[in-house]
Write a structure and sequence with these properties.
The protein is an alpha+beta fold. The protein contains ten helices and nine strands. The protein has two domains: 114 residues, 3-Layer(aba) Sandwich (L-fuculose-1-phosphate Aldolase); 155 residues, L-fuculose-1-phosphate Aldolase (3-Layer(aba) Sandwich). Strand 4 and strand 5 form a beta hairpin.
């Protein structure tokens, strides 16, 4: 069997976690990533009959029974993923009606998946219902998006329009906009359920005064979604206190729609 540390999905997960830490998005043990894998991918590197241990999830996701995930561990620092992936990451398969995670590799120190695992799984269910190709859920704490939630209206249309107006590429990268939750207690099923509901209409969900959830088809796309929104938020935070002399107009954004073949979220442009 091949060495799992050479698997393309493992190499990309390690690179992504390292890059997120280097961007300052995942201080200490902040943030988490889950990547859905196919059985064929996993079987190249692991004996899928060799379950190391079963870990109760604390909720039920029957839609995901039998699905495989590469997931960051609870309490783990993203800066350490590249040095000890077998401690900081794990490959699990959902079983028992989606109530249990069977550990097939990783968490070598006796740990388990991130405390946000239920929220991730709920978001996976929501995104798969919209787009069967969505395989990634990513959570992190980008400073400028957090800062925006202190000084900007949390109305989703207004929040999205502000980000779209900051960078020409924004409406092209996330035409579905950004959804926003008010502050909620993290690590609970309640915030997971609220996030999943928001994921039904957008791939980006801001947690006010906390961070952001992103979803996408692969690690690159999801990272890029968050990176683009964070860049727009950075520009906003640099100019919000200044008089705005000009901005990207709705007419110009309609031109971007036509040129790039995207469709802005209904009702978000005049």
């Amino acid at each position: 069997m091949k060495d799992i540390l050479t698997a393309p999905f493992m190499v990309e997960m390690i690179r992504t976690a390292t890059n997120m830490y280097d961007h300052g998005w995942d201080e200490r043990n902040g943030g988490n990533i889950s990547l859905m894998l196919s059985e064929a991918e996993v079987k190249e590197y692991l004996d899928t009959d060799a379950v190391i241990r079963a870990i109760p999830i604390g909720f039920s996701a029957p839609e995901l029974e039998g699905k495989y995930f590469l997931v960051t561990g609870t309490g783990k620092y993203f800066k350490n993923v590249q040095y000890a992936p077998e401690v900081n990451l794990g490959v699990v398969r959902l079983a028992d009606g989606g109530k249990t995670a069977e550990l097939l590799w990783g968490y070598a120190d006796g740990g388990k998946f991130t405390s946000e695992f239920p929220a991730h799984m709920m978001s996976h269910v929501a995104r798969l219902a919209v787009d069967a190709d969505n395989r990634v859920v990513m959570h992190c704490h980008p400073a400028n998006l957090l800062a925006m939630t202190y000084v900007h209206s949390l109305d989703e249309r207004e929040f999205t329009r502000t980000l779209w107006q900051m960078c020409t590429e924004c409406i092209v990268v996330f035409p579905d906009g950004v959804n926003v939750l008010p502050w909620m207690l993290c690590g609970t099923n309640e915030i997971g359920e609220a996030t999943a509901e928001k994921m039904a209409t957008a791939r980006l969900v801001v947690w006010s005064q906390h961070g952001i959830y992103g979803a996408g088809k692969d690690l690159d796309e999801t990272f890029g979604l968050i990176e683009t929104a964070e860049k727009a938020a950075e520009i906003y935070m640099k100019i919000a206190h200044l008089p705005i002399v000009q901005s990207i107009t709705d007419d110009q954004m309609h031109q971007l729609e036509a040129h790039f073949g995207v469709k802005a979220r209904e009702g978000y442009l005049d």
